[in-house]
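Chain X:
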Amino acid sequence: MGKIGFLNFELRIGKGRGREYPVWVVRSPAGEASGKFIRPFTPGQLKGIKTIIELAMLRSRERTRAALAQELRRIRKFGGDLFDALFKDDIRSCYEASLRLAYSQGKGLRIKLRIEPPELMDVPWEFLYEKKARKFLALSIRTTLVRYIELPYSAKPLLVQPPLRFLVMISNPLDYPSLDVEREKRRLQTALEDLEAKGLVEFHFLTEATLPALQNRLREEEFHIFHFIGHGGYAEEEGQGVLILENERRGSRPVRGEHLGKLLGDHFSLRLVVLNACEAGRPSARETGPYDSFSGVAEALVHERIPAVVAMQFEITDEAAILFAREF
């Protein structure tokens, strides 16, 4: 099947009270609609399902088929309840009409989630499951799902003149579990070897995974994509996401998303950041206390005017990370 185009279905969730939030379809092929979203889970239940999702991904090769099937049923139930709570009444009618219009044009439907309440940023919306169609929306070629963050400026265009220049940083500090970075490096190059042979793609690898090395390289040349391979995490005491870079002695150096964002945001030619790190995409929403939607590394980068960021919300196996780099 060749590439297909997409029509946009923009869904905005506003700030609410308690478990109830206003919802609007602000743009779609079938027009506008409004409704309400009643959160179908408690903070404790959300924490539990996120643990199940992460364990299912990390231990998929070790678990028995029966155990995986049980976990998948719970994930489907969560995703189905989430879908039914979000897409109901007029919102559901608008969604189904938009699907029909997109299909009639031979196109897919891109669902753009605009989430205003910080406490809902931590919800794994990517697991929305449509029971009637028996599918996760994010796994269908006909329905894609993206998070859209409201910012007070317009995004830079993504199109560039080839060759597309990659700057790749592979961070493997001695005091962290060793990653199969050399194999992933080969996979990354192999995945795009045809484009590289045609002169459409160039790979440039940093010899040192340090912040000064990154800063110096960005000053010297223009790049379109920054691809980070390594560990990521969340600094509980600071309430911010971090990437684990190296220091001068090959030890670990946590770098806050805000710090990295200011550095990359000043590189005007940059169009995309790919974070191939175990927890780099996790937002910072907490069950209590203040919220900061940009504390996840990915969100911090978007806040600093990076046009597009691809990151992981949950920790995954090294094998899955390698496959992600190849397929993306």
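Chain Y:
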Amino acid sequence: MTRITLLVGLSALLLVACNENNTTAATPSTIPSVSAIQVPTKVFIGQPVTVSIIGSKLSPNSVNIETVACTDVAITQQSATVLRLTCTPQAQQVPSIQVKNTQGKLLLKQTFIADSLATNALNDTGVIDCQTETDIISLCAGSGLGEWSAWQQDANVGRDYQAQQGQLAKLGAGAAGFDFTKIDISGKPLAANATVWHCVRDNHTGLLWEAKTNDGGLEDYDNTYTWYNPDTAQNGGNFGLENGNKNTLTYIQAINQQGLCGYKDWRLPTAEQLQGLVHYGQSSPTIDTHYFPNTQSANYWTAETTGSSGQFAVVVMFEFGLVRSIAKNQRFSTNENYIRLVRAGHE
């Protein structure tokens, strides 16, 4: 039961409330505060992360903690000055944590970037049509395949088939069975209809790809380079051609110094990784151009070398999706080709 006493003075009206338990309102000595939300340096999508909330007068009952794009939340009290929050970052948005007092006042908010985790998974081919001796049958319509309907063709199985049947769950979007997300210059995910982006995350493989630009700058899709790597542990015995500063190593160093999309561990892809972008359901270029519009129908360098003395490097040709080896340094030319760099949070 609450008892209210009115005290009237010459210049003020005081309303004093008390109850039978003699409970008083919170005083400054009992009000919680938050000075920092500490997130680990390396955070991966789909992997639980433990965050420290630092302050004073902290307990799970003294504050309200809200998360965005970080699920399966668990909160434990380490001490009166530290709360531990564990949650699992998701890929669709930039994860964030905000702490409020019990009256709803925001004490502190922290956003962070969750890195992709390489899965070693392989993409499907992008082929969604079947073929007979003479015809291409759109979406493998059974009536047109005749005796070929008994064959399990590429388009009848895998992620591409699941996508056509509406059975494939995607974190982002993409043609056929591909699952991509556009990423901005700072590393934040964007909507599929974004018109400006600098990187593309492959949600199936966990790899993050350079998107390329068409502005005449460092990342312009018209720029070509010679294959060059002086590291004998990686070059197969042949370092290629330095070609002034117009080579693969110099470009990688420039992109890492820039910190493209928030990262500084960009590199040339392996042949398998780069071929994983090939969309064999189309040609010139053989890639999902909604996510990789600035792509040449030509050779792109990989990190792999071949030959008895490492004189060849493997390229992926995005006109038809062929994978082949070419000389790092041809006798009468500098042999420049295109580059698309890749990175992954963990492999």
